[in-house]
Structure formats: structure tokens, C-alpha cells
Amino acid sequence: MVIEMKITGIKVYILKPQEFSREATRINVPSALVQILTDEEIDGITMLEEASHAEELVMKFKTGRKWLRSTEDFIQLIDADPFDRERIEKSFWNQYFFQRTAPSVLCALDECLWDIVGKALKMPIYKLIGAYREKIPAFASTQSYGSVEDYVRVALECVENGFKAIKIHPPRYWKRDIEVCRAVRDAVGEEVTLMLDPFHAYTREEALKVGREIEKLNFYWYEDPIPTTDIDGLAELCRSLDISVLTGENVHDIYSYAEIIRRNAADGLRCLDVNVGGITGMLKVAHLAELFGMKCELHSWGHPWQQVAHLHIMLSIKNCDFFEMPFPIGIFDQGTRDVVRIDREGYVHAPRKPGLGIDVDWDEIRGRTIRVIAWPK
Ligand SMILES: [Mg+2]
Question: Is the predicted pLDDT of residue 163 greater than 90, yes or no?
Fold first, then answer.
């Protein structure tokens, strides 16, 4: 039996900035809950950290003509079949790829379409893709702190909370970063897996020095030591170091991954939904990595919708080792009670509800809504 559905509209709830605790490394800007409506009793919902991108999606819904001549037909979002995801999104990308925000706007559309399809078929998304596993180990992903003592304290808290792996976001001064890595390794012992993510902070020379130190400390991966734009520098680092060098989460389209791989500029990839157009884009990057024998470690650092969008892919691919859990636990929770948590062995488990697997806490959302934008009105 073929299910016939049509997209009938979009509603965007612009939300007051969340009051993050002092520790959260996050910009407090209005976020948005995005809801795509259909002619059945089924809607697709996701969240965008930046409300302006959600407003842009409403503009795309209003658009009735194509901007660029294209070999493909222009698909109007109203009346489109939510099951025609590939056709809708190819059309979207062909029309808007030149806009800086296109991957993020496409991400909201894509995640809502997956949510609709999952709800229509009463299946969680990872099962629709094809499940590989039902749980995955999580690493605690720290905030950035000022002192070595803070990192040691936080690392010990992570271990107390059941994590077997920790990724350090260091102060981003290479000498101090080495001190932090030594102190944390010393404090947690050899049994805990450690990774370092200085978020593009170093020069090529500094990156090599830090890399050699964390190799001695038996770190598991070395993420974004230098800017992703320095492809030759990354390739040189990959050649010079034994530790796995990861990059990619700040690439702003799926196509740039091909160049990173072709030029041997990464040992493994990182990937983030809002930069590659959502679940569909991440899945393509993960499969590309798989074919080249590479890991694709997905970035699940964010609000609950972002976390589960990444989790569904992790559960349906083999080449990802960890779920990234922001620490302190729950620091980015908002808008729902269906939040991802670890069990006592440090694993996160598959969402059980259909689609993305998240129910909206409408009381909270209504309480935080500044404005609702809808199309058609
Ligand atoms: Mg990172």
C-alpha cells in the first residue's frame, strides 16, 4: 500500500533565548521550533539553534517560482509529498546552494521530513534507514574552562557519572592545552579513552607539538587542530602523526568532504547536521567515509532534537565509535522531556518512539514563544 500525503504548511515558534548555566559554551540567541504540517494528522518537528534560519525556511515555503535556471524541476514545498525527500531536497539545493544559510535551512526541512515519514510508518528513523545496533557508547564532551584544576575536576565528575570516554575542549593555548591533557590523563588513568578538540586553535607547528604530546598520552583522536580550510596543513599533520586526525564538522556542504578525502587531509571525518542539510546529508557523508575505510564521528553536541538526529544515524552505521554527550549532562536540554541519557555502562540507547522520537513539551514551548510565523497564514 502506498501512503499518499501532502505537505500543507509550516509553523515556526521563535523562542526566547535559553538561560544557559554559566558553564555552557553557547551563544544565547533566539532559537526556533519548526513544525511542518501535512494533510494527515501527522506533523514533522525539529529545532534550529538560530531562529533566523527557521524564518528563512518559511520564505522558501512562500516561494512559488525558481530563482535559478536549473536542469531539474522546481519543487514547491506546499503540496509536495514528504516521502519524496531526495527530489525535494535536490531541487532545494539547486535553487539555494549559494546562500550561506542553505545547509541549515535544508537541515530543518530534512529532519521534519524524516520525522513525518517515521511517524507515518510508526517507526523510529534508525530502523527506517536500517538499524545496525540498539545502543552506542557515549563520550562526555567538556565545556571550555580556564584552569587545569577545572579540567581535572570535570574529568573526575565525568568518570563518576559513568563515562568511559571524555573529549576535552581545551583553553586553546597550546602549551596550557598540553598541561591540561597531562593532568587529565594523570587523574583518570589509562582505562579512560581521551580525545582532544582545540577547535581550529593552532598553527601548523603548534598542532604538531600538541599532537606528539597527546600521542604519548595515548589519546584516541585529535580533532580540528588547525582550520579545516588548511587542507595541505591537515594532510601534512595526518602524514606526520600516528594519532587519528579528525575534521569536517565545520565544512558547510556535503561536497567539500570529497576534497578532504581526495587530498588525504583527514584520518576520520566529523559531521554536523546543520552544516550538511540534516540526516540525509550526514548519512551520505557517513557512507562516503565507510567506502574509504574511514570513521565518521557525528557531532551530537546541542539541543535534544539535534542530539537524536545524530543518534539515529550512529545507530544505523558501523563506522562511528561514540555518541557525543555535552557535559554537564542536560546542559542543553529544552522543549521536551525525551532527552538522551547514558546508562550505567556509559551507553545511550535507541529512541523508541516513531520518527525522531521526541514529544514536544508544549507548555514549555508556549511559555518561551516570542512569535509564531505560519504559512499559509
Ligand atoms: Mg569539534
Answer: yes
